[in-house]
Structures are given as structure tokens and as C-alpha cells.
Amino acid sequence: MSDLETYLEETARQVDIALGRYFGDVFGDLYRAGAHLLLAGGKRLRPAMLLLSADAVRHGSSDNLMTAALALEITHTFTLVHDDIMDGDTTRRGVPTVHTLWDEPTAILAGDVLYAKAFEYITLAAAEDRARVKAVNMLARTCAEICEGQHQDMAFEERGAEVEAGDYIEMAAKKTGALYAASASIGAILAGCGPVEADALYQYGMNAGIAFQIQDDLIDLLAPAEKSGKDRGSDLREGKQTLIAIVARERGVDLSKYRRPLTPEDVDAAIAELEGAGVLDEVRRIAAERVTTARQALQVLPESQERKYLEELVEFFVRRSF
Amino acid sequence: MSDLETYLEETARQVDIALGRYFGDVFGDLYRAGAHLLLAGGKRLRPAMLLLSADAVRHGSSDNLMTAALALEITHTFTLVHDDIMDGDTTRRGVPTVHTLWDEPTAILAGDVLYAKAFEYITLAAAEDRARVKAVNMLARTCAEICEGQHQDMAFEERGAEVEAGDYIEMAAKKTGALYAASASIGAILAGCGPVEADALYQYGMNAGIAFQIQDDLIDLLAPAEKSGKDRGSDLREGKQTLIAIVARERGVDLSKYRRPLTPEDVDAAIAELEGAGVLDEVRRIAAERVTTARQALQVLPESQERKYLEELVEFFVRRSF
């Protein structure tokens, strides 16, 4: 295991402990519904990015920022709870979704409670008042962007073959990039950085998040179900407008024949066809470009172990297979 | 028209102008869905309470706090958008509800966007950083309480005859009291008040809000539909656990015979029965007690025109018929 992976594991453990303290023994059905997905595990990459960014601008500052790190994870979880209702998904992180286990009204409210907790926890960060106001403002603008991204993603279904690569990148920037951007930038802001570093880390997180979303699409196609927790090729089956589908269309590969129940052999055939036409290489290239841009943004920071980890983190985003 | 009513009308006009500026010409379906109910009018009582409280602790301070006032109105509206989905309501403020006009996924997201805007706007208040952090923290805790109140209210349906007056007051405190409490207290906090005044205005708003909710129940029963915008006696027909239903049960009045489609004569008969058993007088007495408590809380404030308006405002809460 690399040093980064050890760091990520240790941070996830600390995040899990903190989440357990706040949400492990909650009272009443509503808070249990809110805690359900939050306590179902996860890679806790947004908290890790926030804490690394804080330490990268001022070493040791992450010690005071665990509640802010939780705020980002809680924000992510609230969006998943609401998305699962909208998308009608029944399983997430290996457990039934909130609206499946309870009901839709409870799931809407559980998401809303988590939303509130995210803003409460960010105000609890041990940081300058001015920095906390900026952090709240950034988190709020980010939440609006995530909603826009989810709305665009849903609209892709109707727009179908009209959706172009630029539309996809805009959607991914809002749905996934914005929260990573906020994670990195809020960490730096709460650590007391200036505007140049805050902007640089925002750009870092944004590009890292877009690469992350593209990799998610590749994982859906390529990773065995037991690793990803999803059934392989589900995007293909549902005819989702992923970057893979868009690049395939640009290159004249017709994926519509895969919009049906798929055997593992069907998925393998699709992969072979996409590899043959250079689609997957092109998608990987686009993700790699974002990784490069993300790494370049870090160059305004002084050299440090944490900056090195941030560089490795975005590489990990496109290397992971789950 | 009293001076207070003139003040409320003028404030509502200013709130409407500001909302129109921010939400009147938005781009895209999601923001149009978010703006729909927000621009459909309303009494704008929470912004008025915030601005009056600010001026009651420091005269003239409300001039800088319009964005904070909007934040409270936007918060209220987001809860209505989500509540309408949960309750399956099709009309609100004389217009179709968001999930009726668009669909449920868009309504969930529209509520989520408004939620984000509320927190963004509160950070934009021209106030001390420390005060803004406190305001955000209070708004966040309030949003969680509103969710708890809505969850309790929905649970009342199943609990039926088990629900007691104390349960109702707790629900009303969370669902309605908390946001009025936050309106009054946040106004004072942003105006630079100390903890004694902040607490007093919180208590004022909380008790005013509980009285407001009780009056809402009375209006549902007593006010002609053309005034209230709702069909008269809908709570009775649905067997809702309002304070009226709970006090009726305590006094041995059986309202279950009214759980069916009701003619205006049926509603009149129910009213006569409830008046005869002293139920409505008892409910009015409970609301009046809250009004008295709210007014008493204001006594820590210096005498001023705005304090007088706040006293009159809570009287207006239980006098209004729509």
C-alpha cells in the first residue's frame, strides 16, 4: 500500500469515528434515516481532500477542521439520498437506499436534515470568523451547482443523442467537480490561506472531480460487480449519456444495440468494440488531461508532504477500480 | 389600516421587489421551478419580523439586512415546496404546487436550490463576521428542527387519538415556531445585539410562531375559502391532529363523524358543536397565552416604535383571518 493509501485509510477511520460520535446513537426515525447512508461507509475522499488542502497551506491546521471535513461528507451524502429518490435506485454502498428502507417523505426529510447539519458543522470549524463566512458562502453556492448538475444529468435522458462532450463536462463539473473544488478550497480558506491559493485549490478540486466522474463511468463498464458494488454495464443498458457514450457516437460506434438486459459476454463484446474504435483510450485521455491540469494548479503551493499527497490523490482518482 | 399593517404592506412590497430582482428573470427550468412559489406572493411575515427585530435593538440597522430577510423567506418557501410533495398537495397560494407543475424530481431539486440560496444570502448580510457565523449556525439548527416538526406532524396521522396537546405544541414549536424564533433572533444578532436580547427575541418569535400555527388551524375551520385560499374544514375532513381536534377529544366531542366530504352546513354544525363544548374558546385561550408570553419577552428591549410593532405583530398573528 502506498503512503497515500495509508493516509486515506487512516483519515477514513478518523472520519468514521467522528461520524459515529455524532450520528451513531441518534434518537428517532428521522435521524436514523439520515444516519443510515452516512454510516454505511464510503471512501471519505472529500474530507481527506479538505484536510490535505488545509495542511498544504498551513501545516498542522487540519487538526481543527474535522467538523468542516464532516460537513463536506454530509453534503455529499444528502445529495445521494435525494438523487436515489429521483433516480429510483434501490441499493447504494451495499445497503438499501433510504427511501426504500423508509419511504419517500422520510427520505426527502432525512436529506434535508443532513443538509442542515452540513451547514451547522461548517460553522463549528475552529477558524477565523471571516474564513468561516467564506466557507459557508462557498458551500452554499456549491450546493446550488450540484442541484444544477443533477438536473442537467436528468435532462440528458430526454436530450439523448443531442448531448455533446461539452455538455457532459459542464454537467460533471457541477455534479461532481464543484464539491471536490469546495472541499479543497474550503480546507485552504479555513486554514487561513489567501485568494491565490484558494483559487488554485478550487481549480485543483474541480479538475480532479471531473476526472473522478469520468473514471466512475469507466468503472461502471469495466469493473467487476463485486468490486464496484454496481452491476457492470448498467449505464450501457440504460443508454446513459456518459462520456463513453458520447465519444462512441462521435466515432460512429452504435451502442443502441446494448440497451437491453446484458450478459457478461455482451458487456465484453461492447468493451472490445469500444477499445477497437479507440473510444476508451480517448475517454482516458480526456480524464488524464484533467489530472494534469489539477496537478499544475498545485504549483502555487510550497512543496510539502501534503502537496505530494494531493498530486497522488488525483492520480488515484483515475487509477481506482471501485 | 393600522400603522403596523401599513408597515407590513410596505415591507412585503420591498421584499417582493428584492425577490423579483434575484429570481424574476432566472435561466433554466430548475431555477424557474425554484422561483415559482417564491414569487407567488405571501405575507412576508418572517422578513418583517427579522427587520423589525434588527431595528428594535439598533435603530436603522435593518437597512443592511434585506438579504438576510430574504434568506428567511426563501427558507420558508423551500420547506413548503418539499412539504407539498410529502403531503401530495396540488395548490398553494392560489397557484399549482411545484411538483404538480413540473414533477417530483424537479420539485425536490427546486427546494434544494432554494435551501442553498437561503444560506448564500444570509452570508451576504452587511454585518460583523462573528454575527454572520452565529446567524448561519442558528438558521442551520432551525432547518433541522423544521424537518423534525414536519416529521412529527406526518407521524400524527398514524398515532391518531394518542396525540396529546403537549405533542402538538412540540410539533408546532419545531414546524412553525423555530423559524419565527430564528427570524427575530437573527435580525437582532446581525444588528449587533448581545445574548440577552438574542434570547429574548428567540423566545418572542418562538411563542409568536406557536400562536401563529394555532391560528392557522382556526382559520382552516372558520375562514371562508375565498379569504384563506384553502377549502374550509379540510383538517376536519382529513381527521388532522390539530389543537382543535385534541382539545375536542379531551372534552369528549367526537369529530370522527366529520371525516368525510363536507358541505358548508356540515362545517357550520361542527363549529356550533365545538363552540358549545367550549373547545374553540380553549384553543383561543392557549394561543392568547403564547401571545402574552411573546409580548413579555420583548420587555428587555428599550421602548421604540419597532418594539411596539413587534407587540402588535404577535396580536395580528391571532387576529388574522387568512
TrEMBL record, chains A, B:
GO terms for biological process: isoprenoid biosynthetic process. It comes from the Archaea. Keywords: Magnesium, Metal-binding, Transferase. Its cofactor is Mg(2+). CDD domains: Trans_IPPS_HT. The keyword NADP does not apply. InterPro entries: Isoprenoid_synthase_dom_sf (IPR008949), Polyprenyl_synt (IPR000092), Polyprenyl_synt_CS (IPR033749). GO terms for molecular function: metal ion binding; prenyltransferase activity. Belongs to the FPP/GGPP synthase family. This is Phosphoesterase. It comes from Methanofollis fontis.
